[in-house]
């Protein structure tokens, strides 16, 4: 799923890809996992409580990229 989000102190708008609790901002290699529901639009990713993370081998630019990185 893809939702609208914000990051940084200026709340920069971004697209956030989600998969099974994992999420990543479009174009980032930082993949995080949270227990929070990511079904609502306009999530501020800076406030999400993460309990796991990893660095993807390439920028995540789609839901399919995120799924492939998580399932790798």
Commentary on this structure:
The protein is mainly β and 72 residues long. It has one domain. It has one helix and six strands; from the N terminus they run ββββββα. A six-stranded mixed sheet has the order 5-1-2-3-4-6. A hairpin with a 4-residue loop joins β3 and β4. The longest helix is centred in the C-terminal third of the chain and has 9 residues.
| β-strand number | 6
Spatial shape: globular
**Helix proportion:** 10-25%
Low-confidence stretches: none
Oligomer: single chain
Number of domains: 1
Taking all Cα atoms into account, the compactness measure Rg is: 11 Å
> Could you give the order of strands across the largest sheet?
5-1-2-3-4-6
How many DSSP helices? 1
Structural class: mainly beta
Strand/helix succession: EEEEEEH
Averaged pLDDT, please? 93
Query: What share of the residues does DSSP label as strand, in percent?
Result: 35-45%
Question: Sheet bearing the most strands, described?
Answer: 6 strands, mixed
Q: What's the N-to-C terminus distance? A: 19 Å
